[in-house]
Design goal:
The chain is of the alpha/beta class. The chain has a domain of about 100 residues. It is elongated, with a radius of gyration of 25 Å. The chain is about 35% helix and about 10% strand. About 5% of the residues have low confidence. A 3-stranded parallel sheet has the order 2-1-3, sandwiched between helices. It is built from 5 helices and 3 strands; from the N terminus they run βαβααβαα. Helix 1 links the parallel strand 1 and strand 2.
């Protein structure tokens, strides 16, 4: 039996997390996953309700849980707040309290855009090759043949 802390966050985070919770509920009821869900506050909503973007209660419950489902935090409503009270400080605070240091997300780097990437070349070349293929409906346009060399216009008198 695992315990999951649900931190919906702010804005679209609440909508996305609500859908993810429906999936967890379905897994619990249809496949006996045995996940217990606990709700907590973080970000702007936490500031609105408690005066801080990361309440002590959230940290306490997070340390007792096996995993955390976290939505987006922040929004224009809280931008006027001083830096220490902004919703993002809640996100940074929970990472620090739980000694989490990375946020991994899947990404695809298309070769055509490699030079526009902020990733260093040595980092880009160490990644796994793409295994996904293009959908059958996508057809590649053949490259255009090179243009013939331009000759300067003749200046005959």
């Amino acid at each position: 039996m695992s315990k999951v802390l649900i931190l919906s966050g702010d804005g679209i985070g609440t909508e996305i997390v609500a859908q993810a919770v429906k999936v967890i509920d379905s897994l619990n009821s249809n496949h006996s996953m045995g996940m217990t869900l606990e709700d907590g506050l973080i970000g702007g909503i936490a500031y609105d309700e408690t005066g801080t973007p990361l309440p002590d209660e959230t940290i306490k419950v997070a340390k007792e849980c096996d995993s955390i489902l976290l939505g987006a935090v922040g929004g224009p409503k809280w931008e006027p707040l001083e830096r220490a009270l902004r919703p993002e400080r809640g996100l940074l605070g929970i990472r620090s309290e739980l000694e989490l240091f990375s946020n991994l997300r899947p990404a695809i780097l298309y070769p055509q855009l490699a030079n526009a990437s902020s990733l260093k070349t040595r980092t880009r070349t160490r990644t796994r090759p793409r295994t996904r293929t293009r959908p059958p409906t996508c057809e590649r346009t053949p490259p255009r043949p090179p243009s013939p060399p331009r000759t300067p216009p003749s200046t005959s008198s």
